[in-house]
Design a protein that fits this description.
This protein is an all-beta fold and 132 residues long. Helices cover 0% and strands 47% of the residues.
Length: 132
């Protein structure tokens, strides 16, 4: 098993089909925290993820969990739900993101990559591979 908590830069390729879903996208860098409590102090089966300061992307709470060999990031916004399924590969994680908003007729996917970064500097950690 791999160590998941820490800071990550999340990169998404363009959405397919092409759409302006930036409002429903997750933060581009975040800290995965091993804290199962939600914002009201209730214990959850998922863990908290915090956007890093000055991070482009959404402001809704993001939760994370691991099932089998997949790291999941999930979030909701008014009318929209999103998720990213990531698998360990080449010093980082690769997978797909999906956002659905039935009220807006939005259902898009994108290739996703998450690289471990230094929480203080935002730079890639040694051993992280990817497009950086």
């Amino acid at each position: 098993m791999w160590e998941v908590p820490g800071c990550y830069a999340l990169e998404l390729e363009p959405w397919s089909p092409a759409a302006d879903s930036a409002a429903a996208a997750p933060p581009r860098s975040l800290m995965l925290v091993a804290d199962p409590l939600d914002e009201w102090g209730r214990r959850q089966e998922t863990f908290r993820a915090e956007p890093l300061a000055n991070t482009p992307g959404g402001t809704s709470p993001v939760r994370w969990f691991v099932r089998a060999d997949t790291l999941w990031l999930v979030w909701t916004r008014v009318g929209a739900r999103g998720g990213v399924a990531l698998r360990l590969a080449d010093g980082g994680f690769v997978g797909r993101a999906r956002v659905r908003d039935p009220t807006a007729g939005l259902d898009v996917t994108a290739r996703a990559e998450a690289l471990k970064i230094n929480c203080a500097t935002g730079r890639a950690e040694p051993g992280s591979a990817g497009r950086r």
